[in-house]
Amino acid sequence: MIENVHNLFGFYRETGFCSSVSFTKTDRFSAISGAKNSWPQLVFDIDFQENTAQELNQVLTQAVNRKLPVFAVCDAALFGEKELDYLRQNEIYPVKFWTLMHAFPQPLPQNPNGQQSEKTEFRKLYTDAELEEFTALVNAEFAQNASLSVSLTKELNVKDGVGFYGLFFDGKLTSGLQTFSENQTTGLYFIATDAAFRGRGFATELIRQVMNNSFGNSGELVLQAVQKAVPLYRRLGFSEEGKLVIFWKKEKI
Fold first, then answer.
1. What average pLDDT does the segment 129-136 reach?
2. Domain 103-242 has what CATH class?
């Protein structure tokens, strides 16, 4: 779990060094802020001491007062029902949970149920057109009020330790993901599949290709999964090791 969270927060910090993102670090927390209505908008790496609920309330209140993001990423194990009740009383709500998962790279057999043919191609994404297509794919699946910008995707693509990968079918990007590698750990992020191709093995094949071809047999792979995707990652050899929760503080009007 520690390596998973370290990789996630390392990715956030690296994103914070992009020109289109603001990075704020205090003695109690860090925050990254993209342009209005764009990803990222997150408070993370909070230094919890004893009373996690009170401390989170203090951190998010400070963030609101400083016009910083009002979403905080935390270890879900730190908050029991008593803490959650206190946070709700202070208008702080859990809005999303991620399951932390990890695996060690190993050769995987070809997916017999996948859509494999001469029309399918796995490759690393380099060109502006490919990165634009990847960004559109991510936003179609994940974007709500905070979309990923093409300019940020392109900035991340030239950074050491960052890579973008895609599975194409008949020339169309069907599935994509981004990797961030640091200290022998590689995180998989923005795993997305075109709606018209879901349920046909494309995401499975993409991750299989990344595990087989990109990182050899050393190090560790980590990701943060929404609950509906956990069975897929289990089939690919990932194990669960905890949960993260995203809290949102309601802003005063």
1. 96
2. alpha beta
